[in-house]
Design brief:
Keywords: Signal. It holds the Pfam family Lactamase_B_3. The chain is α/β, with parallel strands linked by helices. The chain contains six helices and 14 strands.
Length: about 280
């Protein structure tokens, strides 16, 4: 895929109707202004009986996040819901997730033969190029998406070929930017709501260029950024060097596993680098 290429034109307002409608419909949005839908305040979920934890380190009001590699993370909720992002046939978690999200840029971001044990296989695109739309409550997890465009190998635009998937659990909102190829409009930013964690591609070539991804991340103003989709230390360090001095601390962790909670979000915005290999 050529790189870098001129940014694709911003999404039209029609693509934003799904998430914008969710924001308008959310009774808690005016108060919290976080994420399109506040699952943690759903009265139905508050009546659910406690469930066995998916992993020993994920407790109530926490979310587990493990970097598997490339663009794949395993997300685990306290209620036992597991999600694999950009699920593909090359980089997979050791467990069969209940939910798999996919994007269509190329084969390291989707699978033609997902494990039959996956209950929800969520493609970030539709074959007719209409926007994919999700608004799903799965146990103590909510999943939504914002459709975006991608470019093909010739640099032509494929409308609605990608999705930014948004996950909410334990009063935390996590966005996976997927194979993002263009900057976001103010309407996009408003539709996404106030996010807590962003999983961002930082290769600077196959996805959005470094200037573009920095523009997106600055606009989102999230407490935690976790880089993904980098091909070597040089690629990662190029992003970190460019991002240095932008009021973000940079932390490198030795483990690919991370436990997140609203109570322990960093007071200073932080880029957390997780090694692949979960």
């Amino acid at each position: 895929m050529p790189c870098p290429l001129p940014r694709i034109a911003a999404l039209g307002s029609a693509l934003l109707l799904g998430l914008a409608a969710l924001i308008a419909a959310s009774p808690a949005h005016a108060q919290a202004e976080r994420c399109p839908k506040l699952v943690a305040e759903n009265p139905f979920l508050q009546r659910l009986a406690p469930r066995a934890l998916p992993a020993a380190y994920v407790g109530p009001r926490q979310v587990g996040l493990t970097y598997i590699g490339h663009s794949t993370f395993l997300i685990e909720t306290a209620g036992g819901v597991t999600v694999a992002t950009d699920y593909n046939d090359y980089v997979r978690p050791s467990v069969v997730p209940r939910v798999a999200t996919m994007n269509r840029a190329h084969s390291t971001h989707y699978s033609l033969n997902p494990d039959p044990g996956i209950e929800y296989v969520l493609k970030g695109w539709r074959e007719d190029r209409e926007p994919a739309r999700y608004d799903l409550d799965i146990g103590d997890l909510w999943v939504g998406n914002l459709p975006t465009n991608i470019r093909d190998w010739q640099g032509e635009t494929i409308r609605n070929g990608n999705s930014i998937f948004v996950f909410r659990a334990a009063d935390l909102c996590i966005a996976h930017l997927g194979h993002l190829h263009h900057t976001l409009t103010q309407e996009d930013i408003g539709a996404l709501g106030r996010l807590d964690v962003v999983l961002a591609p930082v290769d600077g070539s196959y996805t959005l260029d470094i200037d573009g991804v920095i523009e997106v991340l600055k606009a989102l103003e999230v407490p935690v950024i976790i880089p993904m989709h980098y091909f070597n230390e040089g690629t990662l360090n190029h992003f970190l060097t460019r991002f240095a001095g932008r009021d973000y601390a940079i932390e490198r962790r030795e483990s690919p596993e991370l436990v997140l909670s609203r109570a322990t979000l960093p007071k200073k915005p932080t880029v957390i680098v997780l090694p692949p290999g979960g």
